[in-house]
Design a protein that fits this description.
Bound molecules: calcium ion
Low-confidence stretches: none
Strand content: 15-25%
CATH class: Alpha Beta
CATH topology: Inosine-uridine Nucleoside N-ribohydrolase, Chain A
Number of strands: 9
Number of domains: 1
Length: about 325
C-alpha cells in the first residue's frame, strides 16, 4: 500500500450499497485512498441486511475484515413515502444470497455513529451517500454530536442551476436532510451531477478484469447484477462485456476532500424544502458548503480506476 499521510481523514461511510453501483465504487475508492481512515460502514434504506452483507463482503475481499459494518434505518423518519421511492429489492442481492447471517441488529447505525464521534471528538466525518436517515437520527439522539462531528458530507441535490430539482437521496427522506441542515453541524452537500462525465467505461472494466484481484471481480459482478436487475431490469446484460458505462456520483463525496477546488465548494446556507428541493444562499459565515461546479468530462476517471485497483491490491499485501 502507498505511504499513508501522518494525519488521515477519519470517515464513516453511510450507504445504500446494493442498488445503484456507485456506492460499491465509493467504498472501494475509500479503501484505495491513503488519505482516508475508514472507521465503519453503516447501511441505510430498505433491505439493510443485504446492503450490510455486500459491504461486509467487499471489505473482506479488500483485506479489511477489521472495519465494522452496521445496519441502520430501513424507513425514512416521517414514513412519508413519495412516489417512486418505495424500497425495492436490492438489485445486487444475488451477490450475497448464499452468505450466512454474519450481522446482528444490535448496535445500530445511529448508535455506532454517535459512539465513534464521542470516541474521536472533532475528527469524524460522516459521509452519507444514500438517504440521510442514519445521520439525522444520530444528530437527534444526542444534541452535542453536531458540535463534536468534524462534519457531514452528503451526496445530495444537484449543482446549480438544477438545485431546485428534488434529488433522490433528499427526496426519499426530506425530514432527515432538514434535521442535518438545521442541526448546526458542518454540512457539505455535493450534487449528484457534480460527477460530470467521469463514470467507468469499457477500458476501466477491462483493467478491472485483467488485474485478477478478487475485489475487482466482485465489483464487476455487482455492476452486471445492477445493470441486469435494477428497476425493470435488462436481461440482455449477461456479463461485463454487455455494459457500456456506470456512473460514479457517490465517489464525489470522497473526492470533495481531495479536489475541492474543482467542485466550486461555496460556503452558505443549504435549505431543504419538504419535497426534497434544495435552496442555497451564499454566506461566508454559514456552516454549510454547496458544490457549485461539475467536474470536466473525463478528468477524474483515471484517478478513480487507480484507487479501485489499489483497494483490491491491498488484500494481497
Ligand atoms: Ca447511494
Amino acid at each position: 500500500m502507498a505511504a499513508q499521510p501522518a494525519s488521515r481523514i477519519k470517515i464513516i461511510l453511510d450507504t445504500d450499497i446494493g442498488d445503484d453501483i456507485d456506492d460499491a465504487i465509493a467504498l472501494c475508492f475509500a479503501l484505495g485512498s491513503p488519505e482516508f481512515e475508514l472507521l465503519g460502514v453503516t447501511a441505510v434504506y430498505g433491505d439493510v441486511l443485504t446492503r450490510a452483507r455486500i459491504a461486509r463482503k467487499m471489505l473482506d475481499l479488500c483485506g479489511r475484515p477489521d472495519v465494522p459494518v452496521r445496519m441502520g434505518f430501513e424507513r425514512p423518519l416521517a414514513f412519508e413515502y413519495h412516489p417512486g421511492t418505495a424500497p425495492e429489492e436490492c438489485s445486487q442481492r444475488r451477490a450475497v444470497a448464499d452468505d450466512p447471517e454474519p450481522l446482528e441488529r444490535s448496535g445500530g447505525a445511529a448508535e455506532f455513529i454517535a459512539e465513534m464521534v464521542r470516541r474521536h471528538p472533532g475528527q469524524i466525518h460522516v459521509l452519507t451517500i444514500g438517504a440521510m436517515t442514519n445521520a439525522a437520527a444520530a444528530l437527534c439522539m444526542d444534541s452535542s454530536l453536531s458540535g463534536q462531528m468534524a462534519g457531514v458530507t452528503s451526496l445530495a441535490g444537484y449543482a446549480p442551476p438544477r438545485e431546485g430539482v428534488p434529488e433522490w437521496n433528499v427526496r426519499y427522506d426530506p425530514l432527515a436532510a432538514q434535521c442535518v441542515a438545521r442541526s448546526g453541524v458542518a454540512w457539505t452537500a455535493i450534487g449528484a451531477d457534480v460527477q460530470g462525465d467521469n463514470g467507468l467505461t469499457r477500458p476501466e472494466f477491462q483493467a478491472l478484469r485483467d488485474c485478477g484481484l478478487p475485489a475487482a471481480q466482485f465489483l464487476l459482478e455487482l455492476i452486471v447484477l445492477m445493470k441486469r436487475y435494477k428497476g425493470r431490469g435488462n436481461p440482455s446484460v449477461r456479463g461485463i462485456q454487455d455494459v457500456q458505462s456506470t456512473h460514479v456520483a457517490d465517489v464525489m463525496s470522497l473526492a470533495s476532500f481531495l479536489i475541492p477546488e474543482r467542485m466550486g465548494l461555496t460556503r452558505g446556507w443549504v435549505r431543504v424544502d419538504n419535497n426534497g428541493a434544495i435552496r442555497f444562499s451564499p454566506d461566508e459565515n454559514a456552516p454549510h458548503r454547496f458544490a457549485q461546479s461539475k467536474l470536466p468530462p473525463g478528468c477524474y476517471r483515471g484517478e478513480i480506476l487507480r484507487r479501485l485497483l489499489a483497494a483490491g491490491a491491498a488484500a494481497n499485501e
